[in-house]
Amino acid sequence: MRTRHAWLARPGAFMLCLVCCVGVAIVLIEALRQESGGRQAQRATVSASVADRAQVPFPRAIRESSGATLVIPRKPQRIVSQTLGTDEILLAICDPQRIVALSVLVDDPQFSNVTDLAQHVTGRTNAGAEQILHFHPDMIFVASYSKAELVELLHTAHAPVFRFVHFDRLEDIKMNIRTMGYIIGEDDKAEVLVQHMEQDMARMRSSIPPDTPSVRVMLYGQGGYTGGANTTFDDMVQAVGATNVAAVHGVTGFRTISSEQLIQWNPDVIITSAHRDALDAARHQLLRDPAVAVTAAGKHRRIIVIPNHIFLTVTHRITQGIAQLARELYDPKS
């Protein structure tokens, strides 16, 4: 009885079918291998040597934290930066003529380190998707703290968006610099910036007197705000050879503590931040705090106030804050 598969009995039909199936399988496997290999390559791209990164031609591709792959068809020439952090890195490694807009915070001297450099770029963004798209950008930099609806609208418009998400450690800052350099095709300049950052850190460490005992320090601000492990503050403290009291007591990230905890933990030095024109006021305010007054830091009036623009930054400019911390901890004349 003939069946609907009887044609397989014809001479050569079965082998033809088998060859076709094997061919399709090979094509599918190769496609999956290339996709998997491509993803692995993009994960390794930014951590590769600068010579290797610079040799990657456009179009380039890189994976976002969401898992999506961003393809950069050519070296971006109309870049929009929507955050102050990306403003500062971008202005350090990119020709201003390739930047069409920066964030509005770039002009605020209380937070920005690049108010002068920013004058070379006329455009500003106020977090509105329509305004950003009006610049006809070929690359947009946002961050995890950018408004979710903004990022969604940009994606819906099929705009080229890359979102930076890690800012908690000094190593995150270095990786963000290298990532931006890779995306905009300025790998060499990005690596030079990272090297300058590391050289600044090395000079700062060499300025610390040898065999100096570790100083017990603590971040403390209005409302009992402090910083523990896995923060840029903790990395700053470790960089100068001090001990972060909050981290020792199990604090992770940034959170508030009670006055009783501050008194019990009794730091030798209290660190806080303030606007450039309010450093003395912030110091005196803390010294008037009854809880601060009974700590070793309060009794010896050891309060270090670092300007917000070099303390809160998530860029290479943080080395300036670390340098100030080292000076005031170890230099008796500071």
Please give a structural write-up.
The termini are far apart. The chain has two domains: 148 residues, 3-Layer(aba) Sandwich (Rossmann fold); 120 residues, Nitrogenase molybdenum iron protein domain (Rossmann fold, 3-Layer(aba) Sandwich), CATH 3.40.50. The strands form four sheets. A five-stranded parallel sheet has the order 5-4-3-6-7, with helices on both faces. 45% of the residues lie in helices and 15% in strands. Helix 6 runs antiparallel to helix 7 and helix 7 packs parallel to helix 15. Helix 3 links the parallel strand 3 and strand 4. The longest helix has 33 residues. 36% of the residues are buried. It is α/β, with parallel strands linked by helices and 334 residues long.
